[in-house]
Amino acid sequence: MTVPLDSSDMPGPMKHVRKALPHDSAEMHVMGTATYIDDMPEPVGTLHVVPGWAREAVRGRIVSVNLDDVRSAPGVVAVLTAKDVPGINDCSSSFGGDPVLAEDEILFYGQVVFAVVATSRDAARRAAIRAKIEVSPITPILTPEDAIDADTTVLPDYQFRRGSPETGMTAAEEVLEGSMRIGGQEHFYLEGQVAMAQPQESGGMMVYTSTQHPTEVQHTVAKVLGVPDAAVTAEVRRMGGGFGGKESQANQWAALASLAARFTGQACKVRLDRDDDMIMTGKRHDFRVDWKIGYDLDGRIRAVDMEFLARCGYSPDLSLGVNDRTLFHADSSYFYPDASIRSRRLRTDTCSNTAFRGFGGPQGMLAAERMIDAIAIKLEKDPLDIRKLNFYDGERNLTPYGMPVEEFEVMHDLISQLEESSDYWNRRDDVNDFNSANAVLKKGLALTPVKFGISFTLKHLNQAGALVHLYTDGSVHLNHGGTEMGQGLYQKVAQVVAEEFGVTLDKVRITATNTSKVPNTSPTAASSGTDLNAMAAKVAAAEIKGRLIEFLCEQHQCGTDAIRFSDNKVFVADESFPLSEIAKQAHWARIQLSHAGFYATPGITWDRESATGRPFYYFAYGGACAEVTIDTMTGEMTVDRVDILHDVGHSINPAIDLGQIEGGFAQGMGWLTTEELVWDEKGRLRTHAPSTYKIPTAADIPADFNVQLYKGSGNPQSTVYRSKAVGEPPVMLANAVFCAINDAIASLSPGQIPNLDAPATPEAIMKAVQDLRSRRPSS
Amino acid sequence: MRDTIRFLKGGQVVELENVGPTETVLDYLRLRCRQTGTKEGCGEGDCGACTVALGRLVDGKLVYQPVNSCILLLGMIDGAELVTVEDLALDSKLHPVQAAMVEFHGSQCGFCTPGFVMSLFTLYHAHGQEKSRKAVTEWIAGNLCRCTGYRPIVDAALDACFDAADDAFSWRANETRELLQKLADSRDVFIGESDSFFSSPATLDGLAALYGQHPDATLVAGATDVGLWITKQLRDLPKMIWLGRIEGLERVESSPSGVLIGAMATYETTEEAMSDLSPDLGVLWKRIGSKQVRASGTVGGNIANGSPIGDTPPALIALGTTLELHSSEGSRALPLEKFFLDYGKQDRNSGEFVTGLFVPRPSSNQAFRCYKISKRFDQDISSVMGAFRFTIDDGTITDARIAYGGMAATPKRAEHAERALTGALMDDPSTWGAGMQALLSDYKPMTDMRASAEYRMETARALLAKALMEISGTAPDEIRVLAIREADNDRAA
Predict the structure, then answer these.
(1) Burial class of residue A225 in the structure, from the number of CB atoms within 10 Å of its CB (0-12 exposed, 13-18 middle, 19+ buried)
(2) pLDDT class of A12 with cuts at 50, 70, 90
(3) Closest in B449, B481, B493 to A638, CB measured
(4) Which end of chain A has the lower number of beta carbons within 10 A, N or C?
(5) Which of B24, B87, B311, B376 to mutate against chain A (most A CBs within 10 Å)?
(6) Which of A427-434's residues contact partners 24+ apart within 8 Å by CB, and which partners?
């Protein structure tokens, strides 16, 4: 499986790849000239669409919808309901069940019932709240317990099972069990959901959409309008953040804009109000995890039994893949000899939970860390020792789903380097000293690993296309199926293409992702953007370059090794020519200077049905060490120091990768500390604005924050320039913060396992502290 | 009378005749001017994506403040210089803060970036800021970024913002000052008709007369709350009276007996005086809203509209603050706690408005402490806010003033606990128990998105204990996470 490093993957000094270049749009970002969809010039007559909903309803039958006052409101041009949908009224990314406009049922708090089209956004918003919608309420199913009692799921259960966990549990010297709750997370992309649709001749529709999945927007709009896919074009130049929240969740707004555009014949724009956005769109799945672990007195795991109870919301959306990935990561970095790892995809009458950076993986890994911490506390050993003892190694290296962990040495090396650079053991002593000396404040320390599987677990998504043109002035038009949401994909791909053509970056024109240029694309998700699209673009560029080389060999009667592309020039033996000149000559010789490149990840053989095969091309690794201080009177917490070492293979752009690592960590830390989604007893989301939903601010990032890229030998797999994917894995670095908080609480009562739930808000910390204090001292 | 507003933009005076009473600066920029560099992230002043800078003369000095344009009324920039992200680069040469943001990789998706750039622009022009990570993180606490984890932005700020300003704005500062002085007139501004207008009277008498005529008008000070009535509640507010041009209302006067705060004094301008009253107040002040909110928001406005989410009233009540109200009928003063009648209901008569408040300085035998508990340290609203002033004579509490926020529908004194603690001995923690117990009869807190009732009650008691532990000196070592946080900052610096 592993391809040895060959020299062609490691050419000499590079001009563009492995350079810490700024984001391609950095200058436009700081000048305010980078164009987002709401910044685009509006065609004359552009109308604005605002979704309307039943503001008190959570679950129930729609009895009546009176929109008279909406229609008569100033500026209103049209009011659309499900009856106005010419095609299929569904915007699901998977198995259906996501009506664009509700028909006769309200399935969750915030479901869209109608859409107001007005001459201004303000007029549409004011009109939308005038609707009178009568709903006959049905008691909603809100909690995992409600759903289990009602036995209601959005998708069938699924599991990984290896060996005999029952026997393993019996044979183990000790057994521990517990249950933890892991909260969801709002994406809080700074640019909310937005789409602008422009009707084209002959039933066509041009949709500008802030989406990670333009192809799906295209297909959804076609389906809703009842036109062929070919009649619809979706385009996105950049998103103001995605994080998974615009993978499937952008569909509905693009569909509404298109529906309104079809209905009125005018350009129509939907830009959600922040509160509507937070109420209506799906979030990271929240879980209850019931776990049981058998281990020996040396701390080695014998058997694991885990059940992941996910609140999926009202529809399947992406819950299959998300929950599968939870199972794929329920081992974190640890070998489970016998294991039963089960997943229930519970249906609740809440917004439909969706993709979020990590895609279920973080929850699986956090549960694994909880079990390790429990063993360590019970055995009164350091959690890091228990972690290392259970790491995959040369012999114990099969995951519960049967894929070998080939790079276990990278994991060991990375963690031991971090152990040293973070000065873990001396700081452990310092923390112990602090805790002996302080009654109210307690410190905690944790060093946790990350191992994240790279590839879509839906095999067919692991493909990408790119379209590259070389123009006769030597400039290059670059297009591919990946979308830019801030992660620097466009720049990385441009660096790869510039390297391939030997041109300076200013010659490479980055263009908006567009379904009419590269069709049938996969979402930009699963951290795969660069792995897939840079490879496809490299293939396209290499093909054009190959044609030029062939042409030049014939012209100059030389061998291919006499030809070199560099500095916007082509070197043929001792002569050099501007690339523009060669391009012109080739064009005159009727050589095609455009190519559609294609790439499919090799070696993926996962079969979900039988739960066998290899789901991941490779793993990305990382480690984080966090120190925190908690106040055991109030539950307040501060993160004192964080050290991170993360493996990105050979980085294509170290500055961009560092940004992904730091930003991913911060986002993970927010998920596990301050970001709390609260639904009230009626099932209404109460945290639907930044005033009540708290993502980290600058001061929450520890002053002492040390982040390094792991210096290894590159990706053993033949990825683009031996790099590794970096989008999602860093989120799970934040597990160290959560485990450190747990460690601080545990210091109050040695031998007792705290019941800390995520997020560790002051209240959650106090709850765990009080729970620990209320227990009898351990015997 | 003037029926226009006038402000500076790009070195030019802009005069607008058409100003809607609830039109925001952000809508003006994006919809009217089609200048789309300034972004809307949340529409409620909590994310900072819409940050613009306002230049005003303060004691003759040109001061740039960051403000959230999404909840700032257009009429409120009258007399100021408006600076947006489009104004910074000179002939496509980046401004130093823009260049630093690029150099340090401070943008990823870029949507929050214009807001950060504008916040950093105001830091770049700030006078006498000590160069530190803490100074930066406090300054940008009102700018949310979801991509970077902030480190590169903080580094960019540290690199670019602490040298003497040397940009187009500093070069033309004298000219700007002159232009702003010319714009500062003492005419009342009234734009619109009698049933729909934006107005900003220049005198207190003018205000009393206008408000007397239009008691249904909305008085607006910093608009950090009223702005949300417009953008989020979509309220119809056809008559808007802005208090920002009334001379004297912005006063902050410190004396040995206390601090007099005019109704238009912002959190920003009162911070120093409050910090001087008590270090805890200084900390609290810095944790109210964000830099943007503190630059616009007023202490008086927060009280006057009885916002249930005010974090300062408990502290002010514990200190024995009195409130001054004025109308065309005359003036009156009352203890602050009496003003809050019930949830959303205040003791304010028709046509009456808040002119200021007086915060007594704790005397030498008084000890004051206050604590804010929230999910996030910066720019969050407290789940529990506790404030305590104990008068201590010979080691005995002779008077206790205790007030909490988050424990009732209004900021409320803990009368039972106050009585129970009177006579308690500072050196004998066993005499404190009755006070802690009495809190149970003082409050029946609610469960909401910020905390449960149980947590609130437990924490209220913990904060009282903490105050007593700190004041009595019986606290074992350090008992505030905040102190650790500060130490972490110092260690890393």
Answers:
(1) buried
(2) low
(3) B481
(4) C
(5) B376
(6) A427/A627, A428/A382, A431/A627
Sheet (strand B396-405) strand order: B366-373, B384-393, B396-405, B412-413
Of B88, B117, B137, the CB nearest to A698: B137
Q: Out of A440, A641, A666, whose CB is closest to B149?
A: A666
Are B103 and A22 within 8 A, CB to CB? yes
Paired strand residues for B302 = none
For B108, nearest residue in chain A (alpha carbons): A486
What CATH code is assigned to A1-34+407-458+602-779? 3.30.365.10
Judged by CB atoms closer than 8 Å, whether chains meet at B36 and A38 is answered as: yes
CB atoms A658 and B42 under 8 Å: no
Catalytically active residues of A, by annotation: 728
C-alpha distances (whole Å) from A710 to each of A388, A589, A657, A688, B401 are 18, 48, 11, 38, 57
CATH architecture under which domain B5-183 falls: Roll (3.10)
Please state the pTM of the whole predicted model: 0.97
Kindly list the domain boundaries of chain A, sorted by start residue: 1-34+407-458+602-779, 463-600
Residues of B in contact with A699 (CB under 8 A): 134, 137-138, 141, 377-378
Residue-wise pLDDT tens digits, A71-128: 999 999 999 999 999 999 999 999 999 999 999 999 999 999 999 999 999 999 999 9
CA count, 13 A, side-chain hemisphere, B112: 32
Which residue in the set B232, B379, B465 is minimally distant from A633, CB to CB? B465
Q: What is the pLDDT of residues A581-592, one digit of tens each?
A: 999 999 999 999
Closest-CA distance, B188 to chain A, in angstroms, reads 30
Q: Where in chain B is the domain with CATH 3.30.465.10?
A: 252-360
Distance CA B40, CA A348 (A): 32
Asked if residue B319 has pLDDT above 70, the reply is yes
Q: Which residues in chain B have their CB less than 8 angstroms from residue A655's CB?
A: 105
ipTM topping 0.90: yes
Give the chain A residue whose CA is nearest to the CA of B450.
Answer: A692
Does the pLDDT at position B127 exceed 90?
no
Distance between A110 CA and the closest CA of chain B, angstroms: 16
Contact at CB, B481 and A636, closer than 8 angstroms: yes
Residue pLDDT, tens place only, A496-538: 999 999 999 999 999 999 999 999 999 999 999 999 999 999 9
pLDDT digits (tens, 9 = 90+) for A402-456: 999 999 999 999 999 999 999 999 999 999 999 999 999 999 999 999 999 999 9
**Torsion B185-B187-B188-B193 (CA) sign:** negative
Which residue pairs, CB below 8 angstroms and at least 24 apart, start in A658-661?
A658/A707, A658/A709, A658/B105, A659/A488, A659/B105, A659/B108, A659/B147, A659/B148, A659/B149, A659/B152, A660/A487, A660/A488, A660/A726, A660/A727, A660/A730, A661/A622, A661/A707, A661/A709, A661/A726, A661/A730, A661/A733
Give yes or no for residue A9 having a pLDDT over 50.
no
Which residue among B103, B152, B466 sits closest to A633, beta carbon to beta carbon?
A: B466
CATH architecture of B366-481: 2-Layer Sandwich (3.30)
CATH 3.10.20.30 segments of chain B? 5-183
Dihedrals φ, ψ of A428, to 5°?
A: -60, -45
Distance from CA of B184 to the nearest CA of A (A): 30
Which of the following CATH numbers is that of domain B252-360: 3.30.420.10, 3.30.465.10, 3.30.559.30, 1.10.3720.10? 3.30.465.10
Chain-chain contact of B462 with A634 (C-beta, under 8 angstroms) = yes
Closest alpha carbon within chain B to A21: B105
Q: CATH assignment of A463-600?
A: 3.30.365.10
